[in-house]
Design a protein that fits this description.
Distance between the termini of chain B: 41 Å
Radius of gyration of chain B: 14 Å
Oligomer: heterodimer
Shape of chain B: globular
Helix content of chain B: under 10%
Radius of gyration of chain A: 14 Å
Strand content of chain A: over 45%
Structural class of chain B: mainly beta
Largest interface: A-B, 28 and 24 residues
Strand content of chain B: over 45%
Chain lengths: ~120, ~120
């Protein structure tokens, strides 16, 4: 079975450019999470969706960040305009939610983003 | 406060040694879930185990074992007879039903197993 698929794997772009990260969750999973990993802050949640609806976006750093989930099989995380401090590894994860207790999240391989 | 502390930043052992990774959590909730994830050098995050707060039974899976003690708010992970392939960063995480299952991660412990 296919796992969580993220694209691109690597992205290098210049400050001020728009960046779009993409995620395809595991089929049948109804919860989707975006995390960011940096040396300074570790792994932190940015936003999560349940049944395609954003539930908690309190981790989104600022208005430059936005996330959408137009359908059950696709989500995007967009940064506009990008800044060097946004450089990090961004992970997408999906799970079966909490209907029968908190279910494990399965992670994609991540997108390594470098803003020059 | 809801928090996970992994006090060991780095651990280095020689192959075949046993090693324990510590995890201490903080919460006032009585219902919660604990997880361990492995991040090998290739960078992906791999789920290892889930435990809910009502199940204090320890678990063993091959060379891996987990010791959950509510009295000390700890969920420690032991690798028996470590191997070079165990070299990775290991994360402990806390989660709650009423927060949609989002994970609160510890800072991770980098384990290096030398041949």
């Amino acid at each position: 079975d296919a796992g969580v698929i993220q694209s691109p794997r690597h992205e290098v772009t210049e400050m001020g450019q728009e960046v779009t990260l993409r995620c395809k969750p595991i089929s049948g999973h109804n919860s989707l999470f975006w995390y960011r990993q940096t040396m300074m802050r570790g792994l932190e949640l940015l936003i999560y969706f349940n049944n395609n609806v954003p539930i908690d976006d309190s981790g989104m750093p600022e208005d430059r960040f936005s996330a959408k989930m137009p359908n059950a099989s696709f989500s995007t995380l967009k940064i506009q305009p990008s800044e060097p401090r946004d450089s990090a590894v961004y992970f997408c994860a999906s799970s079966l939610g909490v209907g029968q207790g908190v279910q494990p999240q399965h992670f994609g391989d991540g997108t390594r983003l470098s803003i020059l | 406060a809801q928090k996970v502390t992994q006090a060991q930043t780095e651990i280095s052992v020689v192959e075949k040694e046993d090693v324990t990774l510590d995890c201490v959590y903080e919460t006032r909730d009585t219902t919660y879930y604990l997880f361990w994830y492995k991040q090998p050098p290739s960078g992906e995050l791999v789920f290892l185990i889930r435990r809910n707060s009502f199940d204090e039974q320890n678990e063993i899976s091959g060379r891996y074992s987990w010791n959950f003690q509510k009295s000390t708010s700890s969920f420690n992970f032991t690798i028996t007879a470590s191997q070079v392939v165990d070299s990775a960063v290991y994360f402990c995480a806390l989660s709650f039903y009423n927060q949609g299952g989002k994970l609160i991660f510890g800072q991770g412990t980098e384990l290096s197993v030398k041949p």
